[in-house]
Design brief:
The chain is mainly β and 153 residues long. It has one domain: Sandwich (Jelly Rolls). It is 0% helix and 46% strand. It is built from no helices and 12 strands. A 5-stranded antiparallel β-sheet has the order 1-9-6-11-4, with no helix packed on it. The chain has a 5-stranded antiparallel β-sheet with strand order 8-7-10-5-12, with no helix packed on it. It is globular.
Length: 153
């Protein structure tokens, strides 16, 4: 899926095998390779962002950096508001890996709608520095946040 403000790519998942008897012992997911050319400006920073159960991080805008997200544990929903003001909800989970690009200047939030901690691998084309004033908090005033409230409240 591609939009002028964000993109979503399905990622490759490969089974791994034991070196002695070749039984399946796990898997690996390719997030980024320089020769795939998905990320135009190669990452300058990589980190893991944990989102507690039923919590929301953001929304905010990165003024200068383009950010790439891949959920590596659990399930999250990225809520992205494009330049036309339209909201997009993109589910990402570790069972069906994807890479989601959010362009600089585009507002986004990460929602964990589950009862478990989720982890998101984040790649950025500009490295973050504490207090660099690169991030701007925003409000999605016309967005229905109530849909993400606790189901059992």
């Amino acid at each position: 899926m591609e939009n002028k403000n964000f993109s979503v790519w399905d990622l490759e998942k490969h089974e791994t095998k034991d070196i002695i008897d070749s039984h399946i012992n796990g898997e690996l997911t390719v997030i980024w390779r320089d020769w795939d050319n998905l990320i135009k400006n190669h990452p300058k920073m990589v980190y893991v962002n944990s989102v507690n159960p039923e919590e929301i991080k953001g929304p905010h805008i990165h003024k200068n950096r383009t950010t790439y997200f891949s959920c590596i544990n659990g399930t999250v929903v990225l809520v992205i508001q494009d330049n036309d003001g339209k909201f997009h909800e993109i589910k990402a989970d570790s069972d069906k890996p994807s890479l989601i690009e959010v362009s600089n200047g585009i507002a986004a939030a990460i929602v964990n709608p589950t009862a478990d901690v989720a982890q998101v691998l984040v790649l950025a084309d500009i490295a973050w520095k504490p207090n660099d004033n690169e991030m701007q908090n925003v409000s999605f005033n016309n967005y229905d946040w109530n849909k993400w409230k606790k189901i059992n409240s």
